[in-house]
Amino acid sequence: MSSQSNLQTTTAEGGVSNRRDSLVHTYSGNDNLSRVVLLCLDPLSAEVTYKWALDNFISIEKDLVVLVHVRQIDIPVAPYINSTGYIDEVSEERRNESHHLLRTFAEDLNKKKFACKAISMVGDPKHEILRKAKEIRADVVIMGARNMGAIKRTLLGSVSDYIAHNCPCTVVITKPEQEAQQEHRRKSIISLTSSRDNTK
Question: Is this model's pTM higher than 0.90 or not?
Answer without folding.
Answer: no
